[in-house]
Amino acid sequence: MTEKNFWELIDYPVTTEKAVKMIEEENKLTFKLKKLKTKKEEIKKSFEEEFKVKVEKVNTLIDRKGKKRAIIKLKKEFSAGDIGVKLGII
């Protein structure tokens, strides 16, 4: 398996009210993925490389529109808010 850049895997960060609340309260970021077949491990590795942080866990779900989302929880020592600011979510 070849290493993929994080931006090749995701379509865009989700910026709903709920997603922003998750950044502030739960240290989680939400992204819409390009492909349904993207694996959690791929997402984790590429996210850690891109933002130089440690990921606690990755949850994925397929929404009503048939698109896959990744919810990335960062370890306590890293701030989802900082990444949110870099991405322009907050």
Can you walk through the features of this model?
- The protein has 90 residues and is of the alpha+beta class.
- 38% of the residues lie in helices and 28% in strands.
- It has a single domain (6-87), classed as RRM (RNA recognition motif) domain (Alpha-Beta Plaits).
- The protein has a four-stranded antiparallel sheet with strand order 1-2-4-3.
- The model has no long low-confidence stretch (mean pLDDT 94).
Task: Tell me the layout of helices and strands.
Layout lengths: L5 H4 E4 L3 H10 L1 E6 L6 H12 L3 E8 L5 E7 L5 H8 L3
Antiparallel strand pairs: 1-2, 2-4, 3-4
Going by CATH, the homologous superfamily would be RRM (RNA recognition motif) domain
Helical region count? 4
- Poorly predicted runs of 5 or more residues: none
Q: Please provide the count of β strands.
A: 4
Shape: globular
First-residue to last-residue Cα separation: 34 Å
Overall average pLDDT: 94
The name of the CATH topology is Alpha-Beta Plaits
Strand residue content: 25-35%
- Helix/strand/pairing category: alpha+beta
Spatially, the strands of the biggest sheet line up as: 1-2-4-3
Brief synopsis:
The chain has four helices and four strands. By secondary structure, it is an alpha+beta fold.
For this entry, give a set of tags.
90 residues, Alpha-Beta Plaits, globular, 38% helix, alpha+beta, 4 helices
